[in-house]
Amino acid sequence: MQKEKEDIMREKRMYADLLEIGYSHEEALKIIKGKTKRKTPLNQTIFNMLIEIGIPTNVDGFRYASEAIKLLMENENMPITKELYPTVAKSFNTTPIRVERCIRHGIEVAFCSGDVEVLESYFKNSYSFKKKKPTNAEFLTTVAYTVKLKLEE
């Protein structure tokens, strides 16, 4: 019963976020129910996971983290500061420092107001609640690895 309530609340948050970033009512419902072809399975999985973790879609860190996770899935050994941030920055016509800061802000929002059980389920091995939140590198690599595992199922 509790799990069903959490799922409903998660869908409501996702719906509100989708409307806020410009999706129509019909498109938002299709995305939530998984009946859309607009996003590839990779993009949809990353989108769903970031929403579930608690990063709001209206912060730039959501878009930057999504792109960074895709790049990390292509090259797991990509240096975060030297290559990943500059590559993401180039994609969005911004600076690497802004990319790093926006991703960090998105993580902070998620870890301050997100569902503790969801966060613990994803970050139990790389995240210590005493530390408050993972580093950007820990966050991005953990999500990339988890997405990769989900897509292999």
Tell me what the structure shows.
Helix content is 73%, strand content 0%. It has helices spanning 2-20, 25-32, 41-53, 60-74, 80-92, 96-113, 116-123, 136-152. It has eight helices and no strands. The protein has 153 residues and is mainly alpha-helical. Helix 1 (2-20) packs antiparallel against helix 2 (25-32), helix 3 (41-53) crosses helix 8 and helix 5 packs across helix 6. The protein is globular and about 45 Å long. The mean pLDDT is 83.
Attribute tags:
single chain, 153 residues, mainly alpha, 73% helix, 0% strand, globular
The whole-number mean of residue pLDDT values reads 83
How much helix is in the residues?
A: over 70%
Low-confidence stretches: none
**DSSP E strands, number:** 0
Q: Compute the gyration radius: what is it?
A: 15 Å
Q: Roughly what fraction of the amino acids lie in strands?
A: under 5%
What is the rounded distance between the termini? 26 Å
Net shape:
globular
For the sheet with most strands, the description reads: none
- What sequence of helices (H) and strands (E) makes up the elements? HHHHHHHH
Number of helices: 8
Structural class: mainly alpha
